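yo, SEC-C motif domain protein is done. seq:
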Amino acid sequence: MSKLNQQTCPCQSEKTYQQCCFPFHIKTVKPVTCEQLMRSRFSAFVYQLGDYLYNTYHPDYRGDLSVEVLTEQTVDWKNLQILSTASFSDSGYVEFKAWYLDQGKLFCHHERSNFVKENNGWLYCDGLIYPEQKSGKIPRNDPCPCGSGKKHKKCCAK
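structure:
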């Protein structure tokens, strides 16, 4: 885990994982805002931390979800873009785009997630998932939307 802790956090905070989401994942501190919870949940999806995902999911909204289902890696999460966020005293939302690879193709999950604050901690409830946008082809020389920092032609367009 020590090598992992020195890497840039998957949530795109520009901090190391050790300085960012790791303390949330090991429960030494709780996220102060719903955006911090959203970022830590994205990192938990990247690292397949089903226990964390399950425990930060509001019990009234879990349905048939289980830790095992939340631990399964079905796609390769690449990048998180926070579009807007608001935290109020007992609720909040985060609109984001999460880029992922599935069977070698790049996709974008666009959602406006709803959160509540209970017992001095934030919990994910549900979200409005936007339909996949048909934005056309990504120009080969543009930066790859996966967040790698490489040109699209040298990254996900391969």
